[in-house]
Amino acid sequence: xxxxxxxxxNSVFDRDPAARTVFEVLTNYPxxxxxxxxxxxxxxxCRGLKWLGRTISTLVRWLTGVEIHPGxxxxxxxxxxxxxxxxxxxxxxxxxxxxxxxxxxxxxTSWSAGKRHPTLGNNVVIGAGAKVLGPLMVSDxxxxxxxxxxxxxxxxxxxxxxxxxxxxxxxxxxxxxxxQAIAQKYGFDAYAVATDDPVAKAIGRMLDHMHLMxxxxxxxxxxxxxxxxxxxxxxxxxxxxxxxxxxxxxxxxRRAETVESFDPEI
Length: 266
Description:
- By secondary structure, this protein is of the alpha/beta class.
- It has a domain at 2-173: UDP N-Acetylglucosamine Acyltransferase, domain 1 (3 Solenoid).
- It is built from seven helices and 14 strands.
- It has a six-stranded mixed beta sheet with strand order 2-5-8-11-13-14.
- The protein is elongated and about 85 Å long.
- The protein starts with a helix and ends in a 6-residue tail after the last helix.
Protein backbone atom coordinates (compact mmCIF):
# COMPACT_ATOMS: atom_id res chain seq x y z
CA UNK A 1 0.00 0.00 0.00
CA UNK A 2 2.81 2.42 0.89
CA UNK A 3 4.54 1.81 -2.46
CA UNK A 4 1.29 2.59 -4.31
CA UNK A 5 0.91 5.85 -2.36
CA UNK A 6 4.46 6.85 -3.28
CA UNK A 7 3.74 6.03 -6.92
CA UNK A 8 0.64 8.20 -6.81
CA UNK A 9 2.56 11.14 -5.32
CA ASN A 10 5.35 10.77 -7.88
CA SER A 11 2.81 10.77 -10.70
CA VAL A 12 1.60 14.20 -9.53
CA PHE A 13 5.12 15.64 -9.53
CA ASP A 14 5.83 14.11 -12.93
CA ARG A 15 2.73 15.57 -14.59
CA ASP A 16 1.86 18.77 -12.73
CA PRO A 17 4.48 21.54 -12.58
CA ALA A 18 2.35 23.36 -9.98
CA ALA A 19 3.11 20.68 -7.37
CA ARG A 20 5.76 21.88 -4.91
CA THR A 21 5.89 19.71 -1.80
CA VAL A 22 4.67 16.30 -0.71
CA PHE A 23 2.53 17.89 2.01
CA GLU A 24 0.86 20.13 -0.57
CA VAL A 25 0.10 17.15 -2.78
CA LEU A 26 -1.32 15.13 0.11
CA THR A 27 -3.63 17.89 1.28
CA ASN A 28 -4.64 19.77 -1.87
CA TYR A 29 -5.06 17.30 -4.72
CA PRO A 30 -8.66 16.01 -4.90
CA UNK A 31 -7.74 13.71 -7.76
CA UNK A 32 -5.47 11.76 -5.42
CA UNK A 33 -8.13 11.71 -2.70
CA UNK A 34 -10.66 10.38 -5.22
CA UNK A 35 -8.33 7.56 -6.30
CA UNK A 36 -7.57 6.56 -2.72
CA UNK A 37 -11.25 6.70 -1.82
CA UNK A 38 -12.03 4.51 -4.82
CA UNK A 39 -9.61 1.85 -3.63
CA UNK A 40 -11.44 1.66 -0.31
CA UNK A 41 -14.84 1.55 -2.04
CA UNK A 42 -13.69 -1.15 -4.46
CA UNK A 43 -12.36 -3.28 -1.60
CA UNK A 44 -15.86 -3.45 -0.14
CA UNK A 45 -17.49 -3.80 -3.58
CA CYS A 46 -15.38 -6.83 -4.49
CA ARG A 47 -16.31 -8.52 -1.20
CA GLY A 48 -20.02 -8.29 -1.86
CA LEU A 49 -20.67 -5.21 0.27
CA LYS A 50 -22.12 -3.31 -2.68
CA TRP A 51 -24.14 -0.75 -0.72
CA LEU A 52 -21.17 0.21 1.44
CA GLY A 53 -18.95 0.53 -1.60
CA ARG A 54 -21.47 2.82 -3.33
CA THR A 55 -21.89 4.89 -0.17
CA ILE A 56 -18.15 5.46 0.17
CA SER A 57 -18.04 6.40 -3.53
CA THR A 58 -20.82 8.94 -2.97
CA LEU A 59 -19.03 10.47 0.00
CA VAL A 60 -15.84 10.77 -2.05
CA ARG A 61 -17.82 12.48 -4.82
CA TRP A 62 -19.18 15.04 -2.33
CA LEU A 63 -15.65 15.74 -1.08
CA THR A 64 -13.76 15.81 -4.37
CA GLY A 65 -16.22 16.38 -7.21
CA VAL A 66 -14.98 13.16 -8.83
CA GLU A 67 -17.42 10.28 -9.32
CA ILE A 68 -15.79 6.88 -9.75
CA HIS A 69 -18.04 3.84 -9.56
CA PRO A 70 -16.58 1.27 -7.15
CA GLY A 71 -16.82 -1.35 -9.89
CA UNK A 72 -14.41 0.55 -12.17
CA UNK A 73 -10.82 -0.70 -12.56
CA UNK A 74 -7.96 1.80 -12.26
CA UNK A 75 -4.36 1.09 -13.23
CA UNK A 76 -1.15 2.17 -11.53
CA UNK A 77 0.07 5.78 -11.56
CA UNK A 78 -3.31 7.01 -12.74
CA UNK A 79 -3.42 10.82 -12.47
CA UNK A 80 -6.52 13.00 -12.26
CA UNK A 81 -5.68 16.68 -12.77
CA UNK A 82 -8.11 19.19 -11.16
CA UNK A 83 -10.79 16.50 -11.07
CA UNK A 84 -14.03 18.43 -10.82
CA UNK A 85 -16.84 16.94 -12.89
CA UNK A 86 -15.13 13.66 -13.78
CA UNK A 87 -17.42 10.61 -14.13
CA UNK A 88 -16.05 7.08 -14.51
CA UNK A 89 -18.63 4.33 -15.01
CA UNK A 90 -18.96 0.90 -13.45
CA UNK A 91 -17.38 -1.21 -16.20
CA UNK A 92 -14.69 1.31 -17.19
CA UNK A 93 -11.12 -0.01 -17.20
CA UNK A 94 -8.10 2.30 -17.08
CA UNK A 95 -4.54 1.16 -17.77
CA UNK A 96 -1.26 2.29 -16.24
CA UNK A 97 0.15 5.83 -16.45
CA UNK A 98 -3.07 7.39 -17.75
CA UNK A 99 -3.99 11.05 -17.25
CA UNK A 100 -7.42 12.65 -17.42
CA UNK A 101 -8.43 16.27 -16.86
CA UNK A 102 -11.52 17.89 -15.39
CA UNK A 103 -14.94 17.35 -16.91
CA UNK A 104 -14.08 14.01 -18.52
CA UNK A 105 -16.77 11.34 -18.79
CA UNK A 106 -16.05 7.65 -19.34
CA UNK A 107 -19.70 6.76 -19.85
CA UNK A 108 -22.05 4.22 -21.32
CA THR A 109 -24.50 4.36 -24.20
CA SER A 110 -26.74 1.47 -23.21
CA TRP A 111 -29.01 0.51 -20.31
CA SER A 112 -28.20 -3.16 -20.84
CA ALA A 113 -26.12 -4.99 -18.25
CA GLY A 114 -22.59 -6.05 -19.06
CA LYS A 115 -19.62 -4.19 -20.46
CA ARG A 116 -20.88 -0.72 -21.42
CA HIS A 117 -18.05 1.68 -20.56
CA PRO A 118 -14.68 2.40 -22.23
CA THR A 119 -11.38 0.63 -21.76
CA LEU A 120 -8.22 2.75 -21.76
CA GLY A 121 -4.83 1.27 -22.55
CA ASN A 122 -1.57 2.46 -21.00
CA ASN A 123 -0.28 6.04 -21.18
CA VAL A 124 -3.54 7.53 -22.46
CA VAL A 125 -4.25 11.27 -22.03
CA ILE A 126 -7.80 12.63 -22.13
CA GLY A 127 -8.22 16.40 -22.30
CA ALA A 128 -10.64 18.54 -20.32
CA GLY A 129 -14.32 18.08 -21.06
CA ALA A 130 -13.91 15.08 -23.37
CA LYS A 131 -16.55 12.35 -23.46
CA VAL A 132 -15.60 8.76 -24.24
CA LEU A 133 -18.80 6.77 -24.57
CA GLY A 134 -19.58 3.09 -24.94
CA PRO A 135 -17.64 -0.19 -24.62
CA LEU A 136 -14.90 0.99 -26.94
CA MET A 137 -11.12 0.63 -26.74
CA VAL A 138 -8.75 3.59 -26.48
CA SER A 139 -5.40 1.97 -27.22
CA ASP A 140 -1.99 2.64 -25.70
CA UNK A 141 -0.35 6.08 -26.04
CA UNK A 142 -3.49 7.68 -27.48
CA UNK A 143 -4.55 11.30 -26.93
CA UNK A 144 -8.11 12.61 -26.74
CA UNK A 145 -8.42 16.36 -27.27
CA UNK A 146 -10.40 18.71 -25.06
CA UNK A 147 -14.20 18.53 -25.49
CA UNK A 148 -13.94 15.70 -28.02
CA UNK A 149 -16.75 13.14 -28.15
CA UNK A 150 -15.37 9.67 -28.89
CA UNK A 151 -17.76 6.85 -29.81
CA UNK A 152 -15.44 4.58 -31.80
CA UNK A 153 -12.27 2.63 -31.03
CA UNK A 154 -9.04 4.65 -31.02
CA UNK A 155 -5.93 2.92 -32.46
CA UNK A 156 -2.54 2.80 -30.80
CA UNK A 157 -0.76 6.16 -30.65
CA UNK A 158 -3.55 8.15 -32.31
CA UNK A 159 -4.75 11.67 -31.46
CA UNK A 160 -8.50 12.32 -31.64
CA UNK A 161 -10.26 15.71 -31.60
CA UNK A 162 -13.68 17.15 -32.44
CA UNK A 163 -17.36 16.20 -32.30
CA UNK A 164 -17.69 13.45 -33.28
CA UNK A 165 -14.10 12.48 -32.63
CA UNK A 166 -11.85 12.21 -35.67
CA UNK A 167 -8.27 11.00 -35.86
CA UNK A 168 -5.83 13.79 -36.73
CA UNK A 169 -2.63 11.89 -36.02
CA UNK A 170 -1.69 8.23 -36.15
CA UNK A 171 1.18 6.21 -34.72
CA UNK A 172 2.87 6.16 -38.13
CA UNK A 173 2.81 9.95 -38.44
CA UNK A 174 6.54 10.66 -38.07
CA UNK A 175 6.70 14.18 -36.66
CA UNK A 176 9.87 15.93 -35.53
CA UNK A 177 11.13 14.46 -32.24
CA UNK A 178 12.81 17.69 -31.13
CA UNK A 179 9.57 19.56 -31.59
CA GLN A 180 7.68 16.96 -29.58
CA ALA A 181 10.19 17.05 -26.72
CA ILE A 182 10.03 20.84 -26.45
CA ALA A 183 6.23 20.83 -26.61
CA GLN A 184 6.06 18.23 -23.85
CA LYS A 185 8.57 20.16 -21.75
CA TYR A 186 6.58 23.38 -21.88
CA GLY A 187 3.10 21.90 -21.71
CA PHE A 188 1.74 22.50 -25.21
CA ASP A 189 0.31 18.97 -25.17
CA ALA A 190 -1.26 19.20 -21.71
CA TYR A 191 -4.75 18.88 -23.14
CA ALA A 192 -3.81 16.55 -25.99
CA VAL A 193 -4.43 19.05 -28.77
CA ALA A 194 -0.91 20.11 -29.79
CA THR A 195 -1.23 18.34 -33.14
CA ASP A 196 -3.95 20.78 -34.15
CA ASP A 197 -2.78 23.78 -32.11
CA PRO A 198 -1.68 26.73 -34.30
CA VAL A 199 0.49 28.19 -31.53
CA ALA A 200 2.40 24.93 -31.10
CA LYS A 201 2.79 24.67 -34.88
CA ALA A 202 4.11 28.24 -35.09
CA ILE A 203 6.66 27.62 -32.32
CA GLY A 204 7.72 24.41 -34.02
CA ARG A 205 8.26 26.21 -37.33
CA MET A 206 10.24 28.96 -35.57
CA LEU A 207 12.52 26.36 -34.02
CA ASP A 208 12.96 24.66 -37.40
CA HIS A 209 13.84 28.02 -38.94
CA MET A 210 16.36 28.84 -36.20
CA HIS A 211 18.11 25.49 -36.57
CA LEU A 212 18.25 25.90 -40.35
CA MET A 213 19.64 29.45 -40.12
CA UNK A 214 22.28 28.36 -37.59
CA UNK A 215 23.35 25.58 -39.93
CA UNK A 216 23.58 27.87 -42.97
CA UNK A 217 25.47 30.59 -41.06
CA UNK A 218 27.92 27.96 -39.84
CA UNK A 219 28.51 26.70 -43.40
CA UNK A 220 28.96 30.27 -44.67
CA UNK A 221 31.49 31.12 -41.95
CA UNK A 222 33.42 27.95 -42.71
CA UNK A 223 33.70 28.83 -46.42
CA UNK A 224 34.80 32.41 -45.66
CA UNK A 225 37.48 31.21 -43.24
CA UNK A 226 38.79 28.76 -45.85
CA UNK A 227 39.23 31.74 -48.21
CA UNK A 228 41.37 33.55 -45.62
CA UNK A 229 38.74 35.41 -43.69
CA UNK A 230 38.39 35.52 -39.93
CA UNK A 231 34.71 35.49 -39.04
CA UNK A 232 32.54 33.57 -36.61
CA UNK A 233 35.42 32.98 -34.23
CA UNK A 234 33.01 32.34 -31.39
CA UNK A 235 30.70 29.43 -32.08
CA UNK A 236 27.00 30.04 -31.72
CA UNK A 237 25.43 28.23 -28.75
CA UNK A 238 23.46 25.25 -29.98
CA UNK A 239 19.82 24.80 -29.00
CA UNK A 240 19.79 21.31 -27.59
CA UNK A 241 16.52 19.73 -26.55
CA UNK A 242 18.54 17.20 -24.60
CA UNK A 243 19.52 19.88 -22.11
CA UNK A 244 15.86 20.54 -21.29
CA UNK A 245 15.19 16.83 -20.95
CA UNK A 246 18.23 16.31 -18.70
CA UNK A 247 17.14 19.18 -16.46
CA UNK A 248 13.67 17.66 -16.17
CA UNK A 249 15.10 14.23 -15.40
CA UNK A 250 17.28 15.72 -12.64
CA UNK A 251 14.28 17.50 -11.16
CA UNK A 252 12.24 14.28 -11.29
CA UNK A 253 15.04 12.45 -9.50
CA ARG A 254 15.07 15.06 -6.72
CA ARG A 255 11.30 14.79 -6.36
CA ALA A 256 11.51 10.99 -6.19
CA GLU A 257 14.11 11.23 -3.42
CA THR A 258 11.80 13.56 -1.50
CA VAL A 259 8.91 11.12 -1.82
CA GLU A 260 11.09 8.16 -0.82
CA SER A 261 12.00 9.96 2.41
CA PHE A 262 8.34 10.64 3.19
CA ASP A 263 7.00 8.69 6.16
CA PRO A 264 3.15 8.72 6.44
CA GLU A 265 3.37 7.65 10.09
CA ILE A 266 4.91 10.95 11.12
